[in-house]
Amino acid sequence: YLGIARSACVKNRLQQYMNEGASVGGATGSPLLSGWSDMAQALEDELVEFYGGTSGVLVHSGYIANLMIFSVMVGPTDVVALHRDSVHASVHDGLRLHSARHHGEGARVIHFETVDEVDNIESDGVIWVALEGLTSMEGTVTAYLLQRLVRLKNQRAIKGARIEIIVDEKF
Predict the structure, then answer these.
(1) Residue range 26-43: mean pLDDT, rounded
(2) Which of 45, 101, 163, 168 has its CA 20 to 30 A from that of 111?
(3) What residues form DSSP beta bridges with 84?
């Protein structure tokens, strides 16, 4: 979730798009309700290129993004490490759906306080680390923790292990 609805750049581009005769009326939420537009596809393509990815998906809220990540992308042999108990409810909802998909045999979920605890996690799959960002539910700043997690991710990658870091941030 990028909070792009409040972006002046996006608003200006939308105005230009409408001036060119495009129709953007209807629901402003999910493409399921409002249809998929050329503009939405162009934005998705630009984001994929900007981040150097091979594909992407544009969703209408952070809640849906977390639901998708934790219910679909996390594998049954993965470990999900939650920073304290402070992650958003959408992460927990995604994990409940994940467990249901795997008949209760889903990923192992642990809670951590320090990067050393994450470093001690053993997994045959991916280690998904979830934490709140600058505007955490506790009002704390996690920049230092995030820097250390990125270093750990890079160190583990050299050894062939995979850590994915999910920061739930509101813009």
Answers:
(1) 70
(2) 101
(3) none
Task: Report whether 168 contacts 91 (CB < 8 A).
Answer: yes
DSSP string, 101-151: HTTT---EEEEESSHHHHHT---SS-EEEEEE-TT-TT----HHHHHHHHH
How confident is the model at residue 119, as a pLDDT?
A: 94
Cα separations in angstroms, 20 against 101, 114, 159: 45, 52, 52
Query: Whole-angstrom Cα distance, residue 28 to residue 35?
Result: 10
- DSSP output for 75-109: -TT-EEEEETT-S-HHHHHHHHHHHHHTTT---EE
